[in-house]
From TrEMBL:
Biological process terms in GO annotation: propionate catabolic process, 2-methylcitrate cycle; tricarboxylic acid cycle
Gene3D superfamilies (UniProt xref): Aconitase, Domain 2, Aconitase, domain 3, Aconitase, domain 4, Aconitate B, HEAT-like domain
Protein's name according to its UniProt entry: Aconitate hydratase 2/2-methylisocitrate dehydratase
Tagged with keyword Transmembrane: no
Organism this protein belongs to: Donghicola tyrosinivorans
Domain Aconitase/3-isopropylmalate dehydratase large subunit alpha/beta/alpha: 410-894
A GO cellular-component term linked to this record: cytosol
Length: 929
């Protein structure tokens, strides 16, 4: 059997699934195709030509390397293929986006044949994905007197690769499709339980929304030729929860335009919209594809005669429709006047925010990457030629307000800014290129990140990045065939690229499934760091972190940079005293509830939450920053006291050392470099040279929220409110209820303590509750299953050393065994304690799930429909979120507890305590560390 016949067999299998041939990334298979093409009598020649031309992936894949070399042979006359003329070979090279294709074009352009060189140069002038080695060849040739090199550089200096592109069409006609009412999570567009297929774009596209929706979209396209389908979140925000590049890819696959006729299933330019706009991190992903994101504002608050909002019984504003966007409505988007109009031209909404100069550039270039690389290429060419680069791209927006201080995020952005005039201070709203210190890639988006790196022809991590980590946590629950196929391949690619990887491709250290956010929280060793991660919960307790799509992660890894506006901040402070029976998780929930009460609207959405939490160490403070993703915030910053920050950095150092001891450091000694950086930062704080980051007293905030701890007297539960008559109010994080609301009567089918929201102290709370209940009752019986998944192996090792693991083992009916990991997801649960492998487990929902229709009480962050638990035929699945003690007690009781039961159960237990930083917090740090 040859690779080609294997490929044919795979094609037949895919046909039965309604799929086309899978795009080719294997150079050995392409070599077989070429051999069959050269053999004019070969029975497979015609198909081989089609596969080579239309189905071979570009960039730095091994397939692209073999294809580029063959096209070079054709251009030089060393191979003769009637169907691929030299001119067609040049065209194919122009669509291969860097890597081997650039190397071939440079060989031709800098060669001895003048006619060939001139043609290759014209193609090179259209390319932007050049890296240091490519630029060095051009510079060297120019300095050696090459007229062709000078000509190419002159074109780059003028940015002709951008200026000669067609302008964005003035009027975009769309036909609407309402994907759902209320907030639309990216899980609807790219379900977590289908994460294994994300790198197979056509296959993954079949999971968007549902088959009926896909069919309806296709019908709309047939009914409205020439118009683009606009996907809408009616009465909600589009793309909440995560950036998820696969979500935008799916939307583009069904509604967008093909990026290149020679690259299958890569579409660009989708149009998405929401009554309340697009989630910030998802909007970044839309920009990656050159798409359009619209804030419809088609439902507005109904006002009384005094101009005040009329409220419902639940104190939420009554909304009234300003204009209809029901499915099948034809609308027009004018990109010049920046107005949304009806088909007849009636103005419906101002959409200026969708068409800033920068966003229009992304649309013109077919995506943000081309602009990022284009700017870099223009700067290089101008500097090499010794000329001034003309202002081709929209100037960065710079806002500097004299006399106004800086918020914490403004300080971090100013400190890390690239290309800003020395001494210039920028405030919120300014567009800034910043250096990125830490990058995280997670395993269900990592394969897409590796594809993006190949597509942009990157081969090694940028030296600007201090540390980067590839996790294995999202696929930790079940080591099934899909994981076995995908994860080792991903780990090898990322390890070779320069990341610290959870799994050693050589098998020399034990495979780690630690939750990525916890690892990133440890390897972030400065409060001045900028972190980019391929997950919406990339929220650190040190520095400022942004969840991003797989492509932005790839860009950060390849260039060490990110570009974004400096966000506005909302200041959160605390007053009062935390009651002994409350856990800090209740403070987190109460922050959301009190914010909504104080402001009416979610002032956190799209902004940075600057939380003055100061006295909590990194692990516990992370509980707050992690939750901010569900508050729809863009990011969060912890303002920490000097002593607390030093404690957090010492803890981070010890955990990084554990990683080193396990053999996880690389040849570049990345992990040791992070310890050295932490030592330097600790010395700066202790000496007073550079204290812990704080905002200026005269900083300006979008809003301020004061959380009154005195008002928090009961455990709080975030409820998806699945039966709310108003569909738009289901599955949001705005419904926060005290435990007494349920009267001790709400049935709980399963409890889950795990995900990135828990720290070591949470697992200790589980152990202590079991000890207390055993002492009081002689034994502990569970009336509902309790799943416990520690976030990291370090935590389990420490629990074993401190004696807490024994009681957990005593009551467990299942304990993970890394020597024999589960090969199949659990579908039914007994009323026992399950000790699961470190990782995301139920929170991710891509492998392990609760039984359909269950009511789950969890410490996790996600209450999206179908994420943790799917609906059954008779009952909607519910994922309610609460603190660890509430979850444990509910699993034991089989229902939510009343206050008397709860207080008795937590008596004497060291819950995570918190005192506002301005108070003298004797013992305010949790005793768990």
């Amino acid at each position: 059997m040859s690779l080609y016949t294997d490929y044919l067999a795979e094609i037949e299998t895919r046909k039965t699934e309604g799929l086309h041939p899978k795009p080719i990334d294997d150079g050995a298979l392409v070599a077989e195709l070429i051999a069959q093409i050269k053999d004019t009598a070969n029975e497979y020649r015609a198909d081989s030509l089609q596969f080579l031309i239309y189905n071979t992936l570009p960039g730095t894949t091994s397939a692209a390397g073999v294809k580029a070399a063959f096209l070079k042979e054709i251009i030089l006359g060393e191979a003769d293929v009637a169907e691929i003329t030299p001119d067609f070979a040049y065209e194919l090279l122009s669509h291969m986006k860097g890597g081997p294709s650039i190397a071939v074009l440079l060989d031709l352009a800098l060669g001895d044949d003048a006619a060939t060189a001139a043609k290759a140069a014209e193609v090179l002038k259209t390319q932007v994905f050049l890296y240091e080695a490519d630029m060095a060849r051009l510079e060297e040739a120019y300095k050696a007197g090459s007229a062709i090199a000078k000509d190419i550089l002159a074109s780059y200096a003028q940015a002709e690769f951008f200026t000669k592109l067609p302008e964005v069409e003035e009027v975009v006609e769309v036909v609407t499709y309402i994907a759902a009412e209320g907030d639309i999570s990216t899980d609807l567009l790219s379900p977590g339980n289908q994460a294994h297929s994300r790198s197979d774009r056509e296959l993954h596209g079949k999971c968007m929304i549902d088959e009926a929706a896909q069919k309806h979209i296709e019908e709309l396209k047939l009914q409205h030729p020439g118009k683009r389908v606009m996907l809408i979140a009616e009465k909600g925000t589009m793309g909440v929860g995560s950036s998820r590049m696969s979500g935008v890819n799916n939307v583009a696959l069904w509604t967008g335009k093909q990026a290149s006729p020679y690259v299958p299933f890569v579409n660009i330019a989708p149009v998405v919209a929401g009554t309340n706009g697009i989630s910030p991190i998802f909007l970044t992903t839309v920009g990656v594809t050159g798409g359009i994101g619209i804030d419809l504002k088609n439902w507005v608050k109904k006002l009384d005669d005094n101009g005040k909002p009329i409220l419902n019984n639940d104190d939420s504003p009554v909304l009234e429709q300003k204009y209809s966007v029901e499915t099948g409505t034809v609308l027009k988007i004018n990109t010049k006047t920046k107005k949304l109009t009806s088909e007849s031209g009636e103005e419906l909404a101002d959409v200026s925010s969708s068409f800033t100069p920068q966003k229009v550039e992304f649309m013109k270039a077919g995506g943000s990457y081309a602009v990022v690389f284009g700017k870099k290429l223009q700067t290089f060419a101008a500097e090499t030629l010794g000329v001034e680069a003309p202002q081709v791209f929209a100037p960065s927006k710079e806002i500097s307000i004299e006399g106004q201080g800086l918020t914490a995020v403004e300080k971090i952005f100013n400190a890390n800014a690239v290309g800003v005039e020395k001494g210039k201070v920028l405030h919120a709203g300014s567009d800034v290129r910043v250096e990125v210190n830490i990058v995280g890639s997670q395993d269900t988006t990592g394969l897409m990140t590796s594809q993006e790196l190949e597509a942009m022809a990157a081969t090694t991590i940028s030296p600007v990045v201090d540390g980067a980590y590839q996790s294995g946590c999202h696929t930790a629950s079940v080591w099934d065939k899909k994981a076995q196929d995908n994860i080792p391949r991903l780990m090898k690619f990322m390890n070779d690229f320069g990341l610290i990887t959870a799994r050693d491709p050589k098998g020399e250290y034990h495979a780690m499934t630690d939750v990525i956010h916890k690892v990133l929280n440890d390897i972030t060793v400065s409060d001045w760091d900028i972190i980019i991660g391929g997950d919406s919960h990339t929220r650190m307790s040190k520095g400022v972190a942004f969840g991003a799509d797989s492509g932005t992660v790839a860009l950060a890894l390849a260039t060490g940079e990110a570009t974004m506006p400096i966000p506005d901040s909302v200041k959160v402070t605390f007053k009062g005293t935390m009651k002994d029976h409350m856990d800090f998780r209740d403070v987190v929930h109460a922050t959301q509830a009190q914010m909504l009460k104080q402001h009416g609207d979610n002032v956190f959405q799209g902004r940075v939450i600057e939380v003055h939490i100061g006295t909590l160490l990194a692990d516990q403070a992370f509980t707050f920053t992690d939750w901010t993703a569900e508050m729809k915030a863009k990011a969060s910053i912890c303002i920490s006291n000097d002593d607390t920050l030093i404690g957090s950095l010492e803890l981070a150092k010890s955990r990084i050392q554990v990683m080193i001891d396990k053999g996880m450091d690389n040849a570049a000694q990345t992990l040791q470099g992070l310890i050295d950086k932490a030592d330097k930062r600790i010395a700066e704080i202790k000496s007073g040279e550079k204290p812990a980051l704080t905002p200026d007293d005269n900083a300006k905030y979008y809003a301020e929220v004061v959380v009154d701890l005195d008002l928090i007297d009961e455990p709080m539960i975030a409820d998806p409110d699945v039966n709310n008559d108003d569909v738009s109010k289901r599955y949001t994080h705005d419904t926060i209820r005290p435990v007494s609301y349920y009267g001790g009567e709400k049935k709980v089918d399963l409890g889950f303590v795990g995900s990135c929201m828990v720290h070591k102290g949470d697992i200790k709370i589980v152990a202590q509750m079991l000890k207390n209940l055993e002492e009081a009752n002689g034994k502990v019986e569970f009336k509902a299953p309790l799943v416990v998944a520690a976030p990291t192996y370090n935590i389990i090792d420490e629990l074993k050393a401190e004696g807490d693991w024994d009681i957990l083992q005593k009551y467990s009916g299942f304990e993970f065994d890394d020597m024999f990991p589960k090969a199949k997801a659990r579908t039914e649960y007994e009323n026992i304690l399950y000790l699961e492998r470190p990782g995301c487990n139920l929170c991710m929902g891509n492998q392990e799930k609760a039984e359909k229709g269950d009511t789950v009480l969890a410490t996790s962050t996600r209450l999206f429909q179908g994420r943790v638990v799917a609906d059954s035929d008779t009952k909607k699945g519910e994922s309610l979120l609460a603190s660890t003690p509430v979850v444990v007690l509910s699993a034991i009781l089989g229902r939510t507890p009343n206050m008397e039961e709860y207080k008795k159960a937590v008596e004497g237990i060291n819950l995570t305590k918190f005192a506002p930083p301005l108070e003298k917090p004797a013992g305010a740090r949790s005793v768990h560390f």
